[in-house]
Amino acid sequence: MAASSTNPYSEAGVDTAAGDRAVELMKSSVRATHGPEVLGGVGGFAGLFDASALLGYTKPLLATSTDGVGTKVAIAQAIDKHDTIGQDLVGMVVDDIVVVGAKPLFMTDYIACGKVVPERIADIVRGIADACTATGTALVGGETAEHPGLLGPRDYDVAGAATGIVEADAVLGADRVQDGDVVLALASSGLHSNGYSLVRHIITGAGIGYGDDAADLGTTWGEALLEPTRLYTLPLLRLLDTLRPSTGSGTAQGPNEPSAVHSLSHVTGGGIAANLARVLPVGSWAEVDRATWSPSPIFRVLSDISGTGLESTEGTWNLGIGFLAVIDQRQKDAAITALAAEGIHAWQVATVGTGARPAGEFEEGAKGVDGGAVRLVGAYADGAE
């Protein structure tokens, strides 16, 4: 009796040929992120990265981060637009590494889907690769897994992990923060990748479709909500170098001299207060002045639709602030100027205090960190920033 030519794996819903096609489509994008320190090609079981450069460090520390994009992918799936989700992933993963002052080295990604559509996977990976290039990160490997029966044909989720390096005596953190340090806010590009469960709840409750025109935002709802996450890694690494001290002769003292940037906070899940509290020392406090900025239109429109005030979303959305930098007060103007040259609007929102704390409720620490105390005060400014 002749053997059946049917592939039982294909009958179960897994298309290995489509997976191979996806790899072919993404190869050039991935290779574009590789410098001479990346060994081997695309498709190996493991990525190889030449660590010889670490020999030049006195005490190198590896920094690592892992994350996903969350339910923002549901909007990408709804409007069949997948070329920006990759930047969101890199923003969530690699920008966490720079918080400790580390330079990213390499990243890997993981895509789980119900059905491999090669062009869709290639779009996602192309976005990841482009953002890796923009942050100086090599994309050294990844995995695409087809999960029929667990995920629908149009469903997918993305995750990634990255590794960076920092000299031990250059690590940023709460221990460097001093009384009188200023807190600078760095503008976000929009919602970034947090709070999308609330966004989708508001949109669905209002009967709005992602293809509908969002008149106040100048585009469709789907396009507005997929605005990619701003990438801060290279501008912040350059800021750290710009604000390192110099000797009396003006000669730089070297890359290991402490920067005037004392701590950084990536404003992701938990909002402004919780994420700032994580990078302030125990016993310190800061009052973030809402009057120093006006949240972007996307936040105001969503808040109006839901019938709630912006203040009620402060633990969910970034409200226009993507990063916070705690720096020596004497370097405030230099920092703002340097960031402006990078195309990032920055402004002072608070001053760190270590003395008697004002009366009232503060948010203290977050996510298991016994940090400082932070609260938002005042009313948001009206109109554009």
Tags for this model:
about 375 residues, alpha+beta, four-stranded antiparallel sheet, globular
What does this entry look like structurally?
- The protein is an alpha+beta fold.
- The strands form five sheets. It has a four-stranded mixed sheet with strand order 3-6-4-5, covered by helices on one side.
- It is built from eleven helices and 15 strands.
- The longest helix has 17 residues, at 118-134.
| Secondary-structure content class | alpha+beta
Distance between the termini: 76 Å
Helix content: 25-40%
Mean pLDDT: 88
The unreliable regions are 247-254
Number of β-strand runs: 15
**What order do the helices and strands follow?**
HHEEEHHEHEEEHEEHHEHEHEHEEE
Number of helices: 11
- Strand content is 15-25%
Taking Cα atoms only, what radius of gyration do you get, to the nearest Å? 23 Å
The neighbouring-strand order within the major sheet is 3-6-4-5
- Describe the sheet with the most strands: 4 strands, mixed
Quick one: overall form? globular
Brief sketch in words of this structure:
This protein is an alpha+beta fold. The protein is built from eleven helices and 15 strands. The chain has a four-stranded mixed beta sheet, covered by helices on one side. Strands 10-12-7-13 form a four-stranded antiparallel beta sheet, with helices on both faces.
